Amino acid sequence: MNNRHKSGAPWRNFYGRIHGKGLRPAQKAYMADLEHLSPGPVGWNDNPDRTPLDLRTLFGDRPVWLEIGFGSGEHLVHQADLHPDIGFIGAEPYVNGVATLLGKIRKAGLKNIRVHAGDARDLMDVLPEGSIAKAFLLYPDPWPKARHHRRRFVTPEHLGPLHKCLAPGAELRIATDIPDYVRQTLEEVPKAGFEWLAETPDDWRNPWNDWVSTRYEQKALREGRKAHYLTFRRI
Ligand SMILES: C[S@@+](CC[C@H](N)C(=O)[O-])C[C@H]1O[C@@H](n2cnc3c(N)ncnc32)[C@H](O)[C@@H]1O
Fold first, then answer.
1. Is the Cα torsion angle 232, 215, 152, 206 positive or negative in sign?
2. Is residue 30 lining ligand 1, measured as CB closer than 6 Å?
3. What region, left, alpha or beta, does residue 131 occupy, with left being phi > 0 and alpha being psi -120 to 50 degrees?
4. What per-residue confidence (pLDDT) applies to 160?
5. Atom of ligand 1 nearest to the CA of 216
6. Which of the residues are catalytic?
7. With a 6 A CB cut-off, is 119 part of the ligand 1 pocket?
8. Nearest 5 degrees, angle CA 165-CA 97-CA 29?
9. Ligand 1 centroid to 125 CA: how many Å?
10. CA 92 / ligand 1 centre spacing (Å)
11. Torsion-angle region of 199 (φ positive above 0: left; ψ -120 to 50: alpha; else: beta)
12. Which residues, other chains included, contact 64 with Cβ-Cβ below 8 Å and sequence gap of 6+?
């Protein structure tokens, strides 16, 4: 098959940043924590058969929530601190963001987070069907140019697998500051099997009750853009 690597892994172009400036010594030390904070074999080399992860071993009977593209991890850490009875998995390919999150996990002493330092698509391959009770996609990369819209997360390539791993009735929260991203989200997410829960404009203008503003949101607000908070339910 010409759209796969020799290992069997599909070609998945990742257009975002993986490395920023070099890690500080402390951040390098935090990266060692990935050893015990990994959710299990996610990569194609470690798990060529794509065997589903054993979430029960990781979290026991606790419900599991997923954050895709956690950036520097402020929201993930906030949620994990608020909800010790939930198991969290975060996915983020940007190494500097991962290192920052790991530092925050150490500082807060949190025990209920697992981290996939890579593409959420690889993680979604191996999440058991219907295993995720809530998912967060907060300020996904905007890809503003029309010819790049197909790189956005709210496309069938991403939403199909996300739908597969979410439990029926699970909540999906999407935040964005880009009006055209709202348009595409409201077009694509319902097509992928989700229902938009907004009843009044306040429902998408106001953040969720347990929200903490993320680094990207702070920048967007400083630059005069408006936040949109979209809540869906997996059908
Ligand atoms: C605009 S940033 C927002 C970060 C953070 N959520 C925030 O609000 O500050 C988008 C993030 O999504 C990550 N990302 C992009 N594609 C991804 C993918 N396929 N899987 C996981 N994360 C991804 C990027 O690396 C980047 O850190």
1. positive
2. no
3. alpha
4. 98
5. 9
6. 141
7. yes
8. 110
9. 18
10. 6
11. alpha
12. 55, 86, 87, 88, 89, 131, 132, 133
User: Residue 4: what pLDDT?
Assistant: 83
CA distance 91 to 124: 10
The response to whether residue 143 sits with its C-beta less than 6 Å from ligand 1 reads no
Residue for token pair 């790991």: 102
Sequential pLDDT tens for the chain (235 residues): 457 887 788 888 888 889 988 999 999 999 999 999 999 999 999 999 999 999 999 999 999 999 999 999 999 999 999 999 999 999 999 999 999 999 999 999 999 999 999 999 999 999 999 999 999 999 999 999 999 999 999 999 999 999 999 999 999 999 999 999 999 999 999 999 999 999 999 999 999 999 999 999 999 999 999 999 999 999 9
Residue with CA closest to ligand 1 atom 25: 94
Closest residue CA from atom 19 of ligand 1: 119
65 Cβ below 6 A of ligand 1: no
- Copy the structure tokens of residue 207: 């953040």
Closest ligand 1 atom to 94 CA: 25
Measure 40 CA to ligand 1 centroid, in angstroms. 21
- Beta-carbon contacts of 210 under 8 Å, excluding residues fewer than 6 positions away, are 78, 79, 82
- The DSSP bridge partners found for residue 134 are 65, 171
